[in-house]
Design a protein that fits this description.
The protein is mainly alpha-helical. 62% of the residues lie in helices and 3% in strands.
Length: 564
């Protein structure tokens, strides 16, 4: 299968027309040409194009807005071309004249935006791709996934590639799992994740016809959050938020300024009937489950003999070959992964830790990381979340923590490519531990900020922000929060409430900090529409403690906000 894909890709590269020199490129308007150039920029072109679309939507200048209808009509327009050794004149959609890399990135982009783009445009583009007599196999696979998504939207029942007997057995098994774990929330979350991830929502529908769509969405949300320990923490904080920082309790809160002559006044937020939010927040943090990634790191400490004891003999047989692959100076970029790497999908997390220790991945030269991460991106099927978290830690964590100078281009290239596919493990197994680590250097913080700016989708920006709100803040961590807010992603009310609470609690500690003051200014300007009258009262009390030159500007900005 992989070899067939490779041959098809090479054939397309030989016949593809270069986008910048193609005469039909002038048929596109300026925003569409910019998007096409972004899609041809490389393996990360889809992500770059997604961000370009976001910027285009925010642009109000005439002629700069992107329109799917215009873009689709131009891509589906037919262009005369000469094909084959006999140079036969044929008509082909412009979409099929794009380089293969551009076609792949375009379909990947459609996966990201299919919920917001017009369905008729998506259908036209998929229909145009079917006119290719010898399609690229990756393009064909992406197209089929999009087509299946369109069919699923028209019907809540999705055909399963299982026999009736197998479906009945799986349905019975799921009912036993769910029915026997009502008093075990942790186990239920894990089973919910398994069912949603591997069996799909249709088995839930078959098992309980009375379940409503809202119940299914709640189960899916629980399943997504249970993928990492930070999701559990955020859900605990959300429950606390419902009691302490909801709109009505916040409206009844008051800043309590401690008495004492000659001493700086202390701010606390209290809600009537609930006691101190500060003490409850501290209690929730103390009761939070230990981070799974930290447990992974502690378990990985040991000698080479201990590591070998974790790895079964049949897996140890692959170690010499894997070491040889890591030591090879190879620039192979055919989009395939060595078959030896399939062992990564056969390991448990504990076995993978031992295997990484035997391979000494954390000590390998940084120039070898780029090729290894390229292979990981091409590995099919992709590694599980827990194994990806182990690889993240083994490949990058110690390197980031030990940085004393700017990260090398090899390290940045490897980390960026790895993050393009395994962003959640990077957030939970690298970014959060690196920010929590005592004595983390400024270069590590700078690298984290670069990742946030260039490599994280909005959902992962929100995830990192929820992690940072759990940590003790320092001047360096405030710069990370500034970077997170600088992405200007939409924040849900619960997360924004936690942010306001954190800022108010730290108002006295950072009363003379310019970084804290700039962060407050960013909140007032970027998220002004999120600020409620209750928020205004508490932020006003926090600004009263500020001793920087920007205090009056902040107070004026807060006063100018129209009450909601």
């Amino acid at each position: 299968m992989v070899s067939a894909i490779t041959e098809a890709s090479r054939s397309h590269r030989a016949n593809a027309m270069e986008a910048p020199s193609a005469p039909w490129l002038q048929r596109f308007d300026k925003p569409s040409r910019l998007l096409l150039h972004t899609l041809t920029s490389g393996p990360c072109g889809a992500l770059a194009a997604f961000r370009a679309l976001q910027r285009s939507r925010a642009c109000d200048e005439p002629g700069q807005a992107f329109h799917w209808q215009i873009f689709t009509e131009t891509l589906c327009a037919e262009e005369p071309v000469l094909r084959g050794p006999e140079r036969t004149l044929t008509l082909r959609p412009i979409l099929l004249l794009l380089p293969v890399m551009c076609q792949r990135n375009l379909l990947s982009l459609l996966h990201m935006v299919q919920g917001s783009m017009p369905k008729d445009c998506l259908s036209q583009l998929l229909q145009a791709t079917r006119k290719d007599p010898s399609p690229d196999l990756w393009v064909q696979a992406l197209r089929d996934l999009l087509q299946r998504g369109l069919r699923e939207e028209r019907s809540c029942w999705t055909p399963l590639p299982l026999t009736d007997t197998c479906q009945q057995q799986l349905k019975t098994l799921c009912q036993k799992f769910v029915g026997g774990t009502e008093s075990k929330p942790d186990l239920e979350r894990k089973q919910s994740w398994f069912i949603q991830e591997h069996l799909g929502p249709e088995l839930w529908l078959a098992g309980d016809a009375t379940d409503s769509a809202s119940q299914l969405r709640k189960r899916k949300q629980v399943a997504e959050e249970s993928l990492d320990p930070e999701g559990e923490r955020q859900r605990k904080r959300s429950r606390l938020e419902e009691e302490e920082l909801d709109l009505e309790p916040l409206a009844g809160c008051a800043f309590v300024k401690g008495a004492g002559a000659g001493e700086e006044e202390e701010i606390g937020i209290e809600a009537s009937g609930h006691g101190s939010i500060r003490s409850q927040t501290r209690g929730a943090s103390e009761n939070a489950q230990p981070d799974a990634v930290m447990e992974t790191r502690e378990a990985s400490q040991g000698s080479q003999q201990d590591a070998a004891a974790k790895v079964p003999d049949f897996m140890q047989m692959h170690v010499p070959r894997l070491k040889m692959l890591l030591e090879m100076e190879s620039n192979q970029t055919d989009g395939t992964a060595p078959p030896e790497l399939q062992i990564l999908n056969e390991c448990t997390p504990g076995q993978l830790e031992g295997l990484c220790s035997l391979l000494q991945l954390s000590e390998r030269p940084e120039r070898t990381l780029v090729q290894f991460c390229t292979w990981l991106l091409a590995l099919m099927p992709e590694v599980s979340y827990t194994n990806a978290a182990v690889l993240t830690e083994q490949l990058f964590l110690q390197r980031v923590l030990s940085l004393t100078q700017p990260a090398s281009r090899h390290l940045m290239a490897a980390l960026t490519s790895f993050c393009s596919k395994y962003a959640r493990p990077v957030c939970c197994a690298l970014i959060a531990p690196a920010l929590r680590a005592p004595g983390a250097g400024p270069e590590g913080t700078k690298l984290v900020c670069e990742l946030i700016e260039d490599s994280l989708e909005p959902e992962y920006v929100r995830l990192v922000l929820s992690q940072v709100l759990e940590m003790p803040w320092s001047e360096e961590l405030i710069t990370v929060v500034q970077t997170l807010l600088g992405r200007q992603v939409e924040l849900p009310p619960e997360l924004f409430n936690l942010l306001v609470l954190k800022l108010c609690r730290l108002a006295q500690e950072f009363a003379k900090s310019m970084n804290y003051t700039k962060l407050m200014m960013a909140v007032l300007t970027i998220y002004s529409s999120n600020i409620t009258p209750a928020h205004r009262r508490h932020l006003s009390g926090a600004l009263d403690l500020n001793h920087t030159a920007l205090r009056k500007s902040l107070q004026a900005a807060l006063e100018q906000m129209a009450p909601r």
